[in-house]
Amino acid sequence: MVSPSVTRGNPLGDGYLGRYRLDELLGSGGSAEVWRAHDTAADRTVALKMLAHTLTADPEYRQRFEREARAASLLHGPHVVAVHTYGELEGRLYIESEFVDGLDIEALLEWEGPMCPDAAVDLIAQIASALDEAHAAGLVHRDVKPQNIIVAPDDVAYLIDFGTALQDGQTAITQTGMLVGTPAYMAPERFEGAASPRSDIYSLACVLYECLTGQRPFRVRNPAQLMRAHLERTPEPASALAPAVPTALDQVIARGLAKQPAERYSTAGEFADAARAALTVPAPTAPPAVRGLGDQTTVALAAPVPAVDPMAAVQARSTESGMDARTVALSMNSNLGAVHTGSTRRWAFTAAGLMTAAIAIAIGAAWVTGRAAEPQPDQRTRMSAVATTKAPVRVTVPSAIDSSIEAPAAEPTAPPSDGTLIPAAPPRTADPRPPGPGGPGPGGDNRPGGDNHRGGPGDRRPHGHNSFQ
């Protein structure tokens, strides 16, 4: 690796490479270094990539560097850094390209955190157009990753570094058994030595996943385990890590990450279009929250059944069954349309049936009372109290009606023949306790909420420089 302290101070003795004045080292690696330079002949700022001095005599690295220059010069789209020229100066291979003042996606995520879905999809769509152009020219990038995507201050994204690109008909330069690319973003078939445009689509899906969640699809450090993850495992849905991600977008990413190339999208543009469309799919709507007793509904039934309060019936039933009142009320509200549009004849039969039952109960009660043994004089007052203070029984109308009515009192139990008194049942009253917070039901359900959402990449980066690397 070239030491920045050495190259910054006096890279080529006088700070020049031919007509280029080397102003700032933007990045360096084992095989090359990238400078912000000034072309004194054209009087413009450019990005200058130079093959490392120690590799100048290596035929394999020279051939790869020259391939990169030729491949990048074939592309002229708005999301590919334009190559102006390339060649050799003072024994150093170089590529002169457009200078882009921006940050790569990896740096953006470290600085700002995960992106909102709209911003992430917009960036990926721009890179998809660059890949479609490259694929149409017969190039497979083979190293699509966040570090190779530069985002300018105006949110225009650029795909860079075609150093590992492979053109149709070309033979691989790397030795057999060696992988070219970054394993964290490599498609399963890449580990077997194959590469196609759909391999780049897999890598682009990995980048979209990371833009949305701030994490790679497979967070494994061991190379062997990472390769196995790409070959066999399915990553956790992005929405599980970032709730703002629509589930429809999860499905798009899942197809982009399909293990078999034939199961992925046919082009990068198709992948981007599907991602855009997923953002417009309406999210599943949650059931409407049932509010407290202040939001009661009165259902008007045909005479002689009076209009009643359905919440009162819900409270009575929930007290006996332990059921959440709001759950039952929701089910009731969903059937209100049927109540209002049901047949009048059905309500008439129901009301008549209830009245007949009430009359039968009253006649039965009178018959039993008449046959009972005559109580002692001092018991008549208390027996009368038993008969007159017995609480009316609340009868719930079947779910088709979704309401409740008051039925006549059930027949009083006849006193035993030995004169034992029956204690009067206290009248049933409503639960004096106030409903829990948030409405009726145990403790309510008004939990605090909030948005878990990050903004897009607009107007948010520190001043920095990055470019073709």
From TrEMBL:
The keyword Iron-sulfur does not apply. Residues 448-461 have a biased composition (Basic and acidic residues). InterPro entries: Kinase-like_dom_sf, Prot_kinase_dom, Protein_kinase_ATP_BS, Ser/Thr_kinase_AS. Keywords: ATP-binding, Kinase, Membrane, Nucleotide-binding, Serine/threonine-protein kinase, Transferase, Transmembrane, Transmembrane helix. Residues 402-469 are annotated as: Disordered. It comes from the Bacteria. It is an enzyme of class 2 (transferase). The chain crosses the membrane at residues 347-370. Residues 20-279 form the Protein kinase domain. Its EC number is 2.7.11.1. One of its GO terms (molecular function) is ATP binding. ATP binds at K49. This is non-specific serine/threonine protein kinase.
